[in-house]
Design brief:
The chain contains 9 helices and no strands. The protein has helices spanning about 5-15, 15-25, 30-35, 40-45, 45-60, 70-85, 85-105, 115-140, 145-150. Helix 2 crosses helix 7 (about 85-105), helix 5 packs across helix 8 (about 115-140) and helix 7 packs antiparallel against helix 8.
């Protein structure tokens, strides 16, 4: 019988594969790649974002809790605004991150502790959404008044 791992261990061990999968998916999105960035700049936030997800998996919180403050998510929102991303592009990147994480789990499904999988998937979705909310909160948007005055 194969050894099973916790989802957090798999995400930690497979972070490079998850990031590569995410980059491939994002590069296939014409709207997102309309902002020209090097691959290094496009993925700069992901290692820390994935570490935050692993921390959340290892230190469970009730679903819907936004107790984990992610400096990476906050910085990501600021950086993407400076790089010219629209809010919709940030949302698309976040969606692709969930898809890539779930793809990593699917590829490694034979190594996943089955009795923990559903709860961990729910935690991942909750944490990715929480980080998206934090990125969007830090994404500075000028009001119409400020744009017309400035």
């Amino acid at each position: 019988m194969p050894t099973t791992n916790k989802v957090a261990d798999i995400l930690e061990q497979e972070s490079h594969a998850t990031i590569a999968d995410w980059l491939m998916r994002v590069n296939a999105e014409p709207d997102v790649v309309s902002v020209r960035l090097t691959s290094d700049k496009r993925i700069a936030h992901l290692p820390e974002i994935l570490r935050d997800i692993v921390v959340r998996l290892r230190n469970p919180l009730p679903l819907g809790t936004r107790a984990l403050i992610s400096d990476a998510a906050t910085e990501h929102g600021i950086r993407r605004r400076e790089q010219g991303y629209s809010p919709a592009m940030i949302v698309e990147e976040s969606r692709m991150l969930q898809v890539s994480i779930f793809h990593t789990l699917k590829v490694n499904i034979e190594n996943v502790e089955a009795d923990l999988l559903l709860g961990d998937v729910m935690t991942i979705a909750d944490e990715v959404d929480s980080q998206l909310a934090q990125a969007m909160t830090s994404y500075p948007i000028e009001s119409v008044t400020q744009e017309t005055i400035g």
